[in-house]
């Protein structure tokens, strides 16, 4: 409709995944990015590429394509390392991290661009 919506409505309809309090945007983005940098970069890059590719195809093709991505991920070295680290109760060492970083997949090199967090402006009375 082109109507303006506030942060609470954007959160309610799923346009954003978090709303930060006034003045808390930097802290919220930093916290979200900190969670992401512990994930396997190659898997995050694969997921991001698949997300944008599936937007360009129909629903059936999107399901087929993303199913292939999920299977490829489950057969990958990072998945195996994640399961092994979990069962051994240790932090994972992602074997494909070097490949993702070489391909420009490092999230930490682009701070502030890895989230859909919005700052809630102060209420006007």
Shape: flat
Number of helices: 6
Q: Which strands sit side by side, in order, in the main sheet?
A: 1-2
Based on CA atoms alone, the radius of gyration comes out at 18 Å
Label this structure with key terms.
5% strand; 125 residues; two-stranded parallel sheet; 2 strands; mainly alpha; single chain; 6 helices
Describe the fold and architecture.
The protein has 6 helices and 2 strands. The protein has helices at 7-12, 25-37, 41-54, 59-74, 77-88, 97-102; strands at 18-20, 117-119. It has a two-stranded parallel sheet. The longest helix is centred in the middle third of the chain and has 16 residues, at 59-74.
How would you summarize this macromolecular structure in one to three sentences?
With 125 residues, the chain is mainly α. The protein has helices spanning 7-12, 25-37, 41-54, 59-74, 77-88, 97-102, and strands at residues 18-20, 117-119.
Draw up the topology in text.
Blueprint lengths: L6 H6 L5 E3 L4 H13 L3 H14 L4 H16 L2 H12 L8 H6 L14 E3 L6
Parallel strand pairs: 1-2
């Amino acid at each position: 409709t082109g109507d303006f919506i506030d942060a609470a409505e954007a959160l309610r309809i799923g346009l954003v995944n978090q709303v930060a309090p006034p003045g808390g945007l930097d802290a919220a983005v930093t916290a979200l990015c900190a969670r992401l940098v512990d994930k396997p970069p190659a898997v995050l890059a694969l997921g991001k590429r698949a997300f944008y590719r599936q937007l360009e195809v129909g629903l059936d093709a999107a399901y087929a394509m993303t199913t292939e991505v999920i299977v490829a991920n489950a057969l990958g070295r990072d998945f195996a390392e994640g399961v092994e680290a979990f069962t051994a109760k240790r932090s994972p060492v992602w074997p494909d991290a070097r490949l993702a970083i070489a391909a420009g997949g490092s999230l930490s090199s682009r701070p502030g661009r890895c989230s859909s967090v919005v700052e809630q402006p102060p209420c006007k009375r």
